[in-house]
User: Which sequence fits this backbone?
């Protein structure tokens, strides 16, 4: 229910902010004078912006299972699967969420991720590489990190942020396209949209989308620190630190990243790092932050 309220409030806030900006800047009057229904444009932007983001979230579990060929554990078949299933169940109970589906996918990467549209109907998946390259306490630290993502509602929050930014990108790129087209066709009385609109809105959408991606990645990096901290509360600080240190060692020795479903990369325990375009902070910074944390 909280997520529904948040979604509704966010939609209303976006409409209100864009309408206010359009009014203050005189954009609404200018668009109307050009024969453009700016209210329709605003609603269209909202539907496109949030529609794509929420469709992606709604099918995220299905997409992950099929992209990575995840074998969901319905009935544990051996001691490893039993331990994995029981550990996720215990961590979920401590976090106060419903038991996620637990799955394993064949991959050399040492990684795990969480996805799903709801906190009580999520998926936590681990790679065979993680199970082979980490000790049990380290695997538990990784699982605690992923359960923390679910408990914090990170999948929904990331979707809301992406939807907000998508809405602004779609709306502003179209407005800039209209402005560019009007400037190029000054004195031309012919109706309809010219090449200036299509080229202008296309370029503006690329540039604005680029800026939006920087914002999403910056939020994603902050979210990783919070998941580390909660993971330490669930599994113990020592296990969480041990997991991060092991990941750092593996990545320094040319650890691989499986990018079969790039849209899920932000929900993994580890990913390619850099700066502005990275969904995860450098592992050394995560280790330092967790060492300083009072948990």
Assistant:
């Amino acid at each position: 229910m909280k997520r529904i309220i948040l979604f509704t409030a966010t939609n209303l806030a976006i409409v209100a902010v864009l309408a206010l900006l359009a009014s203050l800047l005189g954009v609404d009057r200018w668009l109307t004078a050009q024969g453009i229904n700016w209210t329709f444009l605003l609603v269209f932007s909202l539907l496109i912006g949030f529609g794509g983001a929420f469709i992606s979230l709604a099918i995220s579990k299905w997409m992950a299972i099929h992209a990575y060929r995840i074998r969901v554990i319905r009935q544990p078949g051996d001691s490893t699967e039993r331990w994995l299933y029981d550990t996720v169940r215990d961590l979920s109970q401590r976090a106060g969420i419903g038991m996620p589906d637990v799955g394993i996918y064949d991959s050399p990467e040492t990684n795990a991720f969480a996805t799903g549209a709801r906190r009580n109907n999520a998926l936590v998946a681990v790679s065979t590489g993680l199970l082979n390259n980490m000790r049990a306490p380290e695997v538990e630290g990784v699982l605690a990190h992923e359960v923390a993502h679910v408990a914090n509602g990170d999948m929904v929050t990331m979707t809301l942020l992406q939807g907000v930014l998508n809405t602004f990108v779609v709306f502003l790129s179209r407005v800039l396209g209209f402005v560019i087209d009007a400037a190029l066709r000054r004195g031309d009385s012919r109706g309809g949209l010219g090449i200036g609109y299509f080229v202008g809105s296309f370029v503006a959408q690329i540039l604005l989308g680029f800026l939006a991606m920087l914002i999403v990645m910056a939020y994603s990096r902050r979210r990783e620190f919070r998941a580390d901290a909660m993971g330490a509360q669930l599994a113990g600080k020592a296990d969480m630190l041990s997991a991060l240190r092991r990941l750092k060692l593996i990545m320094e020795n040319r650890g691989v990243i499986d990018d079969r479903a790039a849209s899920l990369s932000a929900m993994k325990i580890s990913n390619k790092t850099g700066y502005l375009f990275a969904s995860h902070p450098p592992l050394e910074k995560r280790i330092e932050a967790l060492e300083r944390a009072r948990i």
Summary: Residues 1-67+151-295 form one domain. The chain has one domain: 1-67+151-295. The first helix runs from residue 2 to 24. The chain is about 65% helix and 5% strand.
